[in-house]
Amino acid sequence: MIFIADFGSQTTHLIARRIREFGAQTKIIRPKNLIKEIDKSKPDGIIFSGGPASVYEKNAPEIDPKIFSFNIPILGICYGFQLISKLLGGSVVPGKKEYGPATLGISNFSPRGEADKFQISNGLQKTFVVWMSHGDEVIKIPRGFEIIGSTETVPFAFVADEKKKIFGLQFHPEVEHTEFGIQILKNFLEECQKIKTQKSKIKITTQSSKYVVNIIKIEKKIKKIVGESYVIGAVSGGVDSTVAGILTAETIGNHFIPIYVDNGLMRDSTREHVEKIFKGHKVKPIAIDVKKEMLKRLKGVVDPEKKRKIIGNFYIEIFEKEMQKLIKSGKNVKFLLQGTIYSDVIESKGTKHASKIKSHHNVGGLPKNMKLKLLEPLRHFYKDEVRLIGKNLGLPDEFVYKQPFPGPGFAIRIRGEVTRERLEKERLVDNIVLEEFEESGILKNVFLSFPVLTGAFSTAVKGDGRFFGEVVALRVVESKDVMTSKWSRVPYDILQKISSRIVNEIPGISRVVYDITTKPPATMEWE
Ligand code: XMP
Question: Which side of the chain, N or C, has fewer Cβ within a 10 Å radius?
Fold first, then answer.
């Protein structure tokens, strides 16, 4: 059992997932309850998560220093490491802010080709890429600690007190894009295992992929929650709502009624795609056309949070109306199925100490007094796990590997006001990007690809005349679990063709720029 003290990181839940992938159990605990929980049952190891606070800030989450007296291995990540340093006599200061990739060098790399001086650095390369996301920095490590690895800007990026089995990382080993991150977590588990020797209950499996999501368990849970009542479902054709919908259709059959809200903000032929998904199941989606009303509600709105809230509220209004109609026809509708996944939850401030990044329309964007109860069977899963569930349900790749498309659709890919004209422009540009990606065969290799109408304007010369038009930004990213992403190295000739087609074919566009920002710091969507 590994305890994870949650200081509010976006990735606390992801740390737990990675540890469970090695066959260990995890419990996420609020820092102030940690000692109490240890008194109840001693874990094999403790991980302190990162978090958005600064250790010297007023009301920053703290931990009782008694924690260091239990002789339990501790791994501090980012804020967790800074807190350890502060509590044990080191110093933390506002440092050079750093978000995204950095190169870590192992200090005493063994000439035999492996960093085997310490268990914690076993199996690593001499240098590798790690992902950072921090503002503060440790400038003095506590007595007893040694440097294991540094980056160009952070000398204390990876440290250890070998005797006490306390480890500190300034970077995030849990995210997909940190090379050897999983190996470091595995090494930590092995340290935990050593401490307990024969008594250890941790059995480390060698392969992360052995971790399988139990579909039967999810379906049983759906049945238990829903009983004999009816469920209406928000289906958008995206992977998450498709998998949630099929799971529910398989569990309760025609007590599930999928609803597709045609809000005019989706890609072309989404409606046909949704109908195709449920073909062969006993359920038939109801389509509701609200295109005109949607535009009316978004009129004059420029703030992205407002857009999300308006869309979230409108959806619930539609679903509750539909619920009343169905109840009148004798169907006892109680639940609204949503394909919410964990990344939506955590970005919408899903835990006590976490920051709100944005109110995803299906989580933080919902009205307070809803009549429908939410059914969210995928709430604790990540995108790659949802895809795995979809594959295990026997869904074709066409559904499972479809590019994610946000619920608020084009509304959050148009900076500023969403008007009929701008919506049409965004749709045309989006089609060009999709067509070119499809034709060059790279569509299936990227996680997301889309243009943004930036609301910025620039000068162009079209046919010898000055033209002042809108700038389109092209965003193409690679990711598996949505928590981090790299921008895609799309071949220049494909970019060139897309750019030429957009500025030539779409009136009002003066320029195309390519977004070369990782997540973190930038989110995938612009709003
Ligand atoms: P971000 O921009 O948060 O994107 O890095 C991560 C994933 O979430 C999608 N996304 C949303 N999906 N409602 C949704 O249903 C939203 O409000 C929303 N905002 C972002 C985004 O497209 C990407 O797949």
Answer: N
Q: Is residue 527 within 6 Å of ligand 1 at its C-beta?
A: no
Q: Cite the active site residues.
A: 78, 172, 174
Task: Kindly report the protein residue whose alpha carbon is nearest to atom 20 of ligand 1.
Answer: 406
**H or E element: which one contains 373?**
strand 373-375
The CB of 90 under 6 Å from ligand 1? The reply is: no
Q: Is the CB of 471 under 6 A from ligand 1?
A: no
Q: What spacing in Å lies between the alpha carbon of 248 and ligand 1's midpoint?
A: 23
pLDDT digits (tens, 9 = 90+) for 355-391: 988 888 788 778 888 999 999 999 999 999 999 999 9
Total domain count, the chain = 3
CATH code assigned at 451? 3.30.300.10
Q: Which of 340, 367, 400 is the last residue of a domain?
A: 400
Co-location of 297 and 251 in the same domain: yes
**Buried-exposed string 85-123: b where 16+ CB fall within 10 A, e elsewhere:** bbbbebebeebeebbbbbebebbebeeeeebebbbbbbe
Say if 228 falls within a structural domain.
yes
259 lies in a domain? Answer: yes
Tell me if 93 is assigned to some domain: yes
Distance between CA atoms of residues 155 and 137, nearest Å: 9
Q: What is the pTM of this model?
A: 0.89
